[in-house]
Specification:
By secondary structure, the protein is mainly alpha-helical. It has 2 domains: about 120 residues, no CATH class; about 30 residues. The chain has 7 helices and no strands. Helix 1 packs antiparallel against helix 3. The longest helix has 28 residues.
Length: about 160
């Protein structure tokens, strides 16, 4: 995989993590909102932290779409799991720097975050993209299997 594709995955993690942390910081300042009070949600968008988080999450979506244009979802999503660790670290240590209370992350939550992230090692060893020919073969196998089950009267 080229350095540009690695950069796109890094940007997905960066934009997603910082966008979520900024959004969280802003919403702690705004306070609780609900769907029934939609005007409060609109007002929250004008909070500088929420607005910054929104812009970063839009950048996340652009980088994510770019990654999905050349790699399988089953590769891209796990490859960006490093964001879980980054968000946890930022929640605990960066939030106080940003003027909000830091999050106290329990050992159990850290263990869960690390287990999810460890799965990246398994996924990263595979290929990022299923070749078109292989996808066609899979589709043909599924199609012929469905026809065979319909021919014998069985229904799944």
């Amino acid at each position: 995989m080229s350095w540009r594709k690695h950069l796109v995955l890094v940007l997905v993690v960066f934009f997603g993590s910082f966008g979520n942390v900024f959004m969280s910081r802003g919403m702690k300042e705004v306070g609780q909102v609900s769907i029934s009070n939609w005007t409060h949600i609109i007002t929250a968008l004008f909070n500088p932290w929420v607005a910054s988080g929104t812009v970063l999450l839009i950048a996340f979506m652009a980088a994510y779409m770019t990654a999905l244009s050349w790699a399988d979802l089953t590769y891209v999503l796990p490859a960006t799991a490093l964001g879980y660790v980054l968000v946890a670290l930022m929640g605990e240590f960066l939030m106080p720097v940003l003027g909000a209370a830091g999050e106290n992350i329990s050992g159990t939550r850290w263990a869960g975050i690390l287990l999810i992230t460890a799965g990246v090692g398994f996924v990263a060893g595979g290929r990022p993209h299923t070749p078109k020919r292989e996808r066609q073969e899979i589709a043909e196998e599924r199609s012929s299997g469905e026809r065979a089950s319909n021919d014998d009267g069985s229904n799944r």
